[in-house]
Amino acid sequence: MTAPTLPTRVVLLAGPSGSGKSSLAARTGLPVLRLDDFYKEGDDPTLPLVPGSTDIDWDSARSWDADAAVAAVVELCRTGRTAVPVYSIATSSRVDTEALDIDRTPLFLAEGIFAADIVARCEKLGVLADAICLRGRPSTTFRRRLARDLREGRKSVAFLLRRGWRLMRAERAIVGRQTALGAYPCDKAEALGRIAAAAAAGRCVRQRTDGAPSGVTPDGAVRTVRG
């Protein structure tokens, strides 16, 4: 049985690594939960390996803590705040914990390469506003991902090149998998339109919940406070 929809809901923003999820999320001005912070740590014995390699497969959903991510999404929807890990991709470890406060805004984003893996659970729990998978040209994604990862020193150059080539060849299959899990595939322009529509719908729900007349914007700015 599906849980009743809560006044605050989430848009899950998926897509291949390097597809532009973080930059698009920042453009919306909405609070953002970074799902990549829920990676498992590098010494976790359950981490999967790339077939035929000694490399950890950080692009497998088994390298990620879906239960903790869903718990954070639900807590944000119910209370407006939660504690989230701060993850260092360079060291494959959680280096801190911080508070995320969304100030009871009716909508926030949760973005990451595994966002599609929790679509069904969020929908069943009544917290899902929409699920989107960003898609583009694999060659463009490859260049954007490699430039970002080199700039941030995420892993060794050799590892990043091996991973980037593998992901470029698999990109269409990655988008296909995320679509099958319930994320709508589109480009950035269409994604922004869908997020705007979800935000408008969320404001209507919040107005009814708060008892304000239809069409009146509720008090309070949407903002994210970290620290």
Explain how this protein is built.
The protein is built from six helices and eight strands, in the order E-H-E-H-E-E-E-H-E-H-H-E-H-E. With 227 residues, it is α/β, with parallel strands linked by helices. The protein has a five-stranded parallel sheet with strand order 2-5-1-6-7, sandwiched between helices. A hairpin with a 4-residue loop joins strand 3 and strand 4. The protein is globular. Mean pLDDT is 85; it is low at 205-227.
Poorly predicted spans: 205-227
Distance between the termini: 37 Å
Based on CA atoms alone, the radius of gyration comes out at 18 Å
Total of helices: 6
Give the averaged pLDDT, no decimals. Answer: 85
- How many runs of DSSP E, i.e. beta strands? 8
How much helix, percentage-wise, in residues? 25-40%
| Overall morphology | globular
Query: What characterizes the major β-sheet?
Result: 5 strands, parallel
Strand numbers in spatial order across the main sheet: 2-5-1-6-7
Oligomerization:
single chain
In short:
The protein has 227 residues and is α/β, with parallel strands linked by helices. It has six helices and eight strands. The strands form two sheets. The protein has a five-stranded parallel sheet with strand order 2-5-1-6-7, with helices on both faces. Strands 3-4-8 form a three-stranded antiparallel sheet.
